[in-house]
Amino acid sequence: MHVAVDQWTLYRQAVVDVQLADRTLRVTPSPWDMTTGFFPESSGRTIHVITAFNPGGRTVPAEDNYRAQGVLLDEIDRRGVAWWPAAGGDAHGVHVEKSAAVVGLSEAAACELGRRFGQDAIFAWTPGSWRLLSCSSDDSAVYGWRTTTKIGRH
């Protein structure tokens, strides 16, 4: 199953805030050959951004989203991999979904986890690219990235 074109367009334009201990990084897609800013994983491993919010691209009640996100975070913790709190959505903050920026999963495992929680797509962030990966097909889009820093927590 392929992601609807209009939904895919929104995912391609999404920004992600990753909450580190001392600051929050906003990751914004850039042209594919441009990366600017700080990449927080010192060994250069891929950071996958995964959420359990709004499965299937449908808006669900907040309590359902938070319950599902808690189950996702429990699963990430059970796998023994590192993660930072994150939030993805539109650049203006009108639509925001709590997420996790996860280090230590293979691409297949990250997509499977997204699929298990009803997600159309996840993000894969490396020192050289920002990729949008479908959880249900081979569809993907590759970009560069730019980070900006917000002092404190979001």
Verbal overview:
By secondary structure, the protein is an alpha+beta fold. The protein has one domain (5-151). The protein is built from three helices and nine strands, in the order H-E-E-E-E-H-E-E-H-E-E-E. It has an eight-stranded antiparallel beta barrel with strand order 1-2-9-8-7-4-6-5. A hairpin with a 3-residue loop joins strand 1 (15-19) and strand 2 (23-30). The longest helix is centred in the middle third of the chain and has 17 residues, at 62-78. It is globular, with a radius of gyration of 14 Å. It starts with a helix and ends with a strand. The model has no long low-confidence stretch (mean pLDDT 93).
* Low-confidence segments: none
Q: Tell me the number of helical segments per DSSP (H or I, 4 or more residues long).
A: 3
Number of strands: 9
Measured distance between first and last alpha carbons: 35 Å
Radius of gyration using CA atoms only: 14 Å
Kindly name the structural category.
Answer: alpha+beta
**What oligomerization state is this entry in?**
single chain
Number of discrete domains: 1
Order of helical and strand elements: HEEEEHEEHEEE
Strand fraction equals 35-45%
Helix-residue proportion:
10-25%
Spatial strand sequence of the major β-sheet: 1-2-9-8-7-4-6-5
> How much is the average pLDDT?
93
What does the largest sheet look like? 8 strands, antiparallel, barrel
Shape: globular
